[in-house]
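TL;DR need structure tokens for one chain.
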Amino acid sequence: MDKRIRVVVSGAGGRMGKEVVKLVLQDEELELAAAVDRSSMGIDAGSLAGLPEAGVTVTDDLDAALSAGADVLVDFTVPQSAFNNTTAAIRHGVRPVIGTTGFTPEQIAELDKQCREQGIGGLIAPNFSIGAILLMKFAAQAAKYFPHLEIIEYHGDQKLDAPSGTSIKTAEMIAEVREELRQGNPNEEELLEGARGGYYNGFRIHSVRLPGVFAQEEVVFGGFGQSLKIRHDSYERAGYMPGVKLGIQKVMGYTGLVYGFEHFIE
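>> reply
TL;DR here they are.
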């Protein structure tokens, strides 16, 4: 590109936020316009990410950061603030790239409307890992032939939401090609609350939370005399950064909000 894309990182002090700051500072096609994080205010963004000083001081003023000629906001914060952060970005004409999960379908529709009114692109992606997106696509394909399935997702014990946004997105993609089918014995009884996991369109999602675990997801299919397992393992946050960069580049070229990184993977 002739001009570097100016990026604001919201949630810069979080574990994913620091990786995004590092990505932006080390990529010659990107420029760090601002870093926003209440708990890290006053710290140089480069130092925060474990790099040499970058001359960008972390602020807690998102509106001021968005007013500084930014092109894209990358948000990895918490569900309670992500919607307001996204609307603020759109209001300033800054394209949102959102990795925070927890948006409702109504909120996504509203944000799409706002993006179109502003004539800018936006992206909400529960997962930026290309491997995880391929798992979702493969699972949706397999569900056409193996309609009996369960999803098991694994994350660290400090994760706030369950099930994960990635597993919900996987379930949504499966539901697009699979008619609702309530699996198992109709007389099944849970002797312990939650033993069968969360119900989605006739199948179950199980959330495992343990220290030492990063992020894995497995979709298990069962059929007569056979089973099929599709699994993806993430080992470190840096593995998401090629997808984050692709998202930053893609939102510069369309209008409206895209929900799901799979739309960029042919």
